[in-house]
Amino acid sequence: MNTGADTVLVTVAQIVEGFGLSAGRVRAWIAAGMLKPIRREGRGRSGQMLFCRGEVGSLVYGLCPVCGGGFKRSTLKQRHCSRLCRDRERRAREKGAKP
Predict the structure, then answer these.
(1) Are 12 and 18 in contact (CB under 8 A)?
(2) Is the pLDDT of residue 42 over 80?
(3) Selection from 96, 76, 89, 84 nearest residue 25 by Cα
(4) Considering the entire predicted model, what is its pTM?
(5) Residue 33 and residue 76: Cα distance in Å, rounded?
(6) How far apart are CA 62 and CA 1, in angstroms?
(7) How far is CA 47 from CA 37, 39, 61, in A?
(8) Dihedral sign, CA of 28, 30, 31, 33?
(9) Residue range(s) occupied by CATH 1.10.1660.10 in the chain
């Protein structure tokens, strides 16, 4: 990821548009504490929250531990880019665990 892009501040609307996420998902991440605003502009509930674009990118995109390829996560728990990579890792673990 570009280091200059990591420090850019974006609003919820820009996250929704730029990353292709739903506003509800972004609000759920904020409520769960996974995405914390860097700064708030305005007062009260109507104030805009600003987030670091790099932090949002680390939630949205992942790096597969098996093949090293990058992928867009469908859920936050997703660790692998495909079922094939997930099965490869599982088989390698099973093979290594047997005497």
Answers:
(1) no
(2) no
(3) 76
(4) 0.70
(5) 13
(6) 11
(7) 12, 10, 28
(8) positive
(9) 1-60
The residue-averaged pLDDT of 30-54 equals 81
The β-bridge relationship of strands 61-63 and 70-72 is antiparallel
What is the C-alpha separation between 19 and 81, in angstroms, rounded?
A: 18
Query: What percentage of residues in the chain have a pLDDT greater than 70?
Result: 85
Per DSSP, helices labelled H in 1-99 are: 3-6, 12-19, 23-32, 53-60, 83-97
Cβ-based burial of 40 (10 A; exposed 0-12, middle 13-18, buried ≥19):
exposed
- Structure tokens given for 5: 């892009």
| Domain 1-60 architecture | Orthogonal Bundle (1.10)
Q: Can you give the pLDDT at residue 2?
A: 47
The number of residues in the chain equals 99
Q: What whole-number distance in Å separates Cα of residue 18 and Cα of residue 12?
A: 10
